[in-house]
Every structure is written in C-alpha cells, then in structure tokens.
Specification:
Helices cover 33% and strands 10% of the residues. With 516 residues, the chain is α+β, with helices and mostly antiparallel strands. The strands form 6 sheets. The protein has a 5-stranded antiparallel β-sheet, with no helix packed on it. The protein has a two-stranded antiparallel ribbon with strand order 1-2. Strand 11 and strand 12 (300-304) form a beta hairpin. Helix 1 (27-35) packs across helix 2 (48-61), helix 6 packs across helix 7 (180-192) and helix 10 packs across helix 12. It is elongated, with a radius of gyration of 32 Å.
Length: 516
C-alpha cells in the first residue's frame, strides 16, 4: 500500500560526540503535523479536512488502510474530537484517552497521549497494526493488508475479543450487529460511501461463555471466502487506470460544492492524473478523498475516492486442458467380522460395527457375559448396542481410554461402587450429574446420558475445566467429532445408546492424535 517511513538512524563520530536521530524523538508525528499544516502545540481540534489529513497520512505510514483508521477514530470519539473546550484531552470514565481512546496500553506515554493529538493518532494506528499481525487472531483470505475486510478481527481486538464482540450471537445464530467491529465497518459505509462484504461467519467458529468476561476462543484461524473483497481506495497512482463503481459526478474542484463537469457511467475507465486531495470545504466531515482523473475524451475533474476501483485486468487464456481420464472405481474390501459374530451374540454388521470393533480391540468395551439365552438356556456375551448409555457407563469406558492407569488406581470413597469413576470425573473438572451424596443423586448415574451432556463431559476433560454444552457441541462440530453441522442438528437432548460411545471416542482419539 505504502512504503513505510524508515526513521534515519545515523551515527557520526566527531571526537567523542555521537549524534543520532530515531523514532523516540517523534520524527513521524512531527513530519505528519508539518505536512498537514497542523500546530501540534495548539491544543485545539483541527478542522475536518486537517484531521482527515492527519489520520490518512499516519495510516499510510504504518501500512494500515486509512478507511479503517478513520472509522475507528469515528467510533472512539464521534465528531473527531480530541480536546475539550478548555484545551484538555477528552478522557472517558474507563480512562480512554483522546481521539483514539487509548486505554491501559503499556509502552505509551500517557501525558503525550493527552497533550499531543498526532502522537495519540500514531499510537492508535500502531495498536491496529499490532492487532493485524497477531497470530492468535483469524486471517481473512491470507491477510492482505490492502483489503478492508481483512481487518475485521484486528478491529475487534482493538476494542477486545470478548463475547460481546462475537461476530455471531451464540444463542440465536444471528449476526451480532452490536459488535464493535460491525459498528466500525458501518462507519466506512456511512462516511466513506463504501459497501463492504458481509463475511459469512458461523456461530460454531467462536467458542465462548456469554456470561463470562473471558476472551473468545477462535476455532477457525484461516478463512478463505469466495467473495469480491474491497481494496483500499488510497493506493491509486498517477497514470493508473480505474473504473467507476456507479454513475458519479465529476467535479471541477475537490468538493461537491463545485461545478459538475459531467457524469462517469458505471464501469467507465478513467486515468488517475495526480495525487488525491482532501475535501476543500474544511467544515465537511467526509472520510473519503478526491482523485483528479482524466477521461478518454481528454476532459479532467475530481471524483470521490469512494466511487473508484481498480480496473479489471484481462488475462490471456491458456490452452484448454485435456480431460482427465476417469479413474476406475475403488476396490472396497469388506472387513472380516467373523470372530466378533462368534464372540458376541448380538454383533451385527451395521453402522456401529467398525468403531465398536476398534473399542473392543482396545479393551474399552467388554460386553455383558451374564445374559442367558432363553432357547438354549446358556449364558452369552452381548454388546447391547441399542441399550441406553448411562453416565456411569460412559465414564467407565471413557476413563479406560483416557486415564486407564488412574482408573486402575482409583479408590472408592464410599460403599457406592461407582464412586471411583465419579471421583475421577471430579478430579478432571467434568460436570457430571450424579454424585454419591444422596440416593437420588446416585440414581442419576443409571439414567441415559444426553448427547449434549456427553459432549460437555468430553470437552471439559479436554480443557481441564467445565465448559457449557453449546461450547462443547461447537467443539465437536469444528473438530470432526460429529457429522452434524449445527447445534440444532446435533440434537443435544437425544439420549445416546451404547452403539454411539465407541464412535465418539474413536473420533476424539483421531482429533487428539493430530494435535501432537
């Protein structure tokens, strides 16, 4: 977008004297104030055109789209005000300082944030720049800094990655129009006159407890949207071809208060004939700038940056590729379950067979050998795949998989035979329903376990702390522990059968192995 300003660091030895110039002397801020003809010592809010200049030039120095910086300034301090009527910096109740509302930021001089408007702007831009480079925040289409939509999560982080700023309302699955970043991007539409793409996020991509102040956990860090995203309008150069995005008036000067010199038709190509200009009428708060353009008939005038876009490049098509030969159908080798048919009287080659065999071979599932065949009067071993899975049985099977040594060494703390597995569940912060306290609470161990509760127990074990059912289901969806695409379709209240448990643990095992 813009070549970064590199502060001169020179060292000239004259005897024992060393001279150096560096960024600590506020070289960038002073340079921008001079270029925008602003007296930084005045303690007065500049007019809108001057403020537009200060915000734009600072943004370009740090390779941040000016549209983003101006919208953040709009959101943080409406009307672009830094000083009050007494020449004091505006400080809010939560200690947000000045135009960019810098709050509790280490490494910044608090007094200068108040007294020096240009330093305040520079500090805010640096914070945005830092947020964009964070590795723990999602990237949009590989993170092109010139693309406005790519700054979605950096803008969020400027305010805080808290549940209140989730892109999607967890409870409803609807767009969170009240999120900070949504409001900021709305200012770009209002003041820059640019329509941005609404990015199609999904609720299951964001893990959080809506009743907590903990930060959102982003379950998707790389987004690739097949959408025509919007490039910043501040990189057009002299001689560059651009297109009109709509029918737009060409003005004789950089303001709508000047005469019309005709109308560009939507899609018409013009040539940028010089650097952009700021709004000529200083009392108009336009975020956009004006570009001088030349039409194909040789006429010239000014067009607002909002209504220009990069001209589409025309590529020469390559040779038509030859069709690929159709591969032969794969050979499907049917598994041999003969030994399992012999061992378990109710074994069937159904959807659960593969995962059940996996769990049997691992020793997680053993079957019930106390069932008597009414016809032969002989004892048989049954898997009972269609029987309800109880919470106690789930914990036993899961701990055989995840904590086999701990299970073997666990001690009972009462006459209740299931106290061992429930003590382990407590140790690993798993929010079980049953407990050994009363007869009624012990009885819960024998009730069928719901799909949502199973997900909650497994994910709570994974994190080492109790999470909500919705958070756990989102985890299942994101990480392939279920084939259902949404919380609603997961059917959290359905009771599980024994056939399901091996499938869930096998998928969990696959997920965990990929994390190592």
């Amino acid at each position: 977008m813009k070549k970064l300003f590199k502060p001169l660091i020179g060292v000239i030895a004259i005897g024992a004297i060393t001279l150096s110039i560096n960024n600590d002397k506020n070289v960038i801020a002073n340079d921008i104030a001079d270029k925008c003809d602003y007296d930084a010592a005045s303690k007065v809010n500049p007019d809108y055109s001057t403020m537009n200049c200060l915000l734009t030039k600072t943004a370009l120095e740090f390779d941040v789209p000016p549209e983003i910086v101006k919208a953040v300034a709009e959101g943080e301090s409406g009307n672009w005000r830094h000083f009050d009527n007494n020449g004091k910096a505006i400080v809010t109740a939560d200690n947000g300082i000045g135009l960019m509302q810098i709050t509790n930021q280490a490494g910044y001089n608090e007094e200068r944030l108040k007294s020096d408007l240009v330093y305040n702007i520079e500090s805010g831009v640096k914070i945005l720049d830092k947020m964009f480079d964070r590795s723990d925040l999602p990237k949009i289409n590989n993170g092109d800094r010139e693309v406005l939509e790519s700054w979605y999560f950096a803008i969020m982080a400027y305010n805080g990655t808290k549940p209140v700023n989730s892109p999607i309302v967890q409870a409803t699955g609807e767009r969170n129009v009240k999120a900070y970043q949504e409001k900021i991007l709305g200012f770009i539409k209002t003041f820059e006159k640019i329509d941005l793409q609404e990015l199609p996020f999904k609720s299951e991509e964001f893990q959080y407890d809506s009743n907590s102040r903990d930060n959102i956990k982003f379950l998707e860090l790389d987004y690739n949207f097949d959408l025509p995203l919007t490039k910043s309008k501040y990189s057009f150069e002299k001689g560059q071809k651009v297109n009109a995005t709509t029918n737009v008036t060409v003005r004789s000067r950089p303001t709508t208060d000047s005469d019309s010199k005709g109308t560009l038709s939507k899609g018409e190509t013009v040539t940028i004939s010089g650097p952009f200009k700021y709004e000529e009428v200083a009392t108009k708060k336009n975020h956009f700038v004006w570009y001088p353009v030349k039409r194909s008939d040789g006429s010239e005038g000014y067009v607002a940056s909002s209504y220009l876009e990069y001209a589409d490049s025309i590529s020469t098509p390559g040779p038509t590729p030859l069709p690929k030969p159709t591969p032969p159908p794969p050979v499907i080798i049917k598994p041999d379950y003969s030994e399992y048919f012999k061992k378990f009287s109710d074994f069937r080659d159904l959807w659960w067979a593969e995962s059940m065999v996996w769990a049997i071979d691992k020793g997680y599932i053993q079957g019930d050998s106390t069932i008597r065949n009414e016809k032969t009067n002989k004892l048989e071993t049954h898997l009972l795949p269609n029987k309800q899975l109880t919470e106690a049985h789930f914990l036993t099977i899961f701990f055989r998989y995840a904590e086999n040594d701990a299970l073997a060494n666990a001690k009972s703390t009462s006459s209740w035979g299931k106290s061992k597995v429930y003590n382990l569940a407590k140790k690993y912060n798993m929010p079980v329903r049953a407990s050994e306290k009363t007869k009624a609470s012990r009885a819960l161990a024998e009730e069928g376990i719901r799909r949502g509760k199973l997900a909650q127990l497994m994910v709570s074990y994974y994190y080492g702390k109790a999470v909500s059912e919705d958070t756990a289901i989102q985890f299942f969806i994101k990480n392939g522990l279920t084939t259902q695409p949404s919380i609603k379709e997961f059917k959290a209240n359905d009771i599980l059968t024994r056939a399901h448990i091996s499938a869930f643990i096998q998928r969990y095992e696959s997920f965990v192995s990929k994390q190592k």
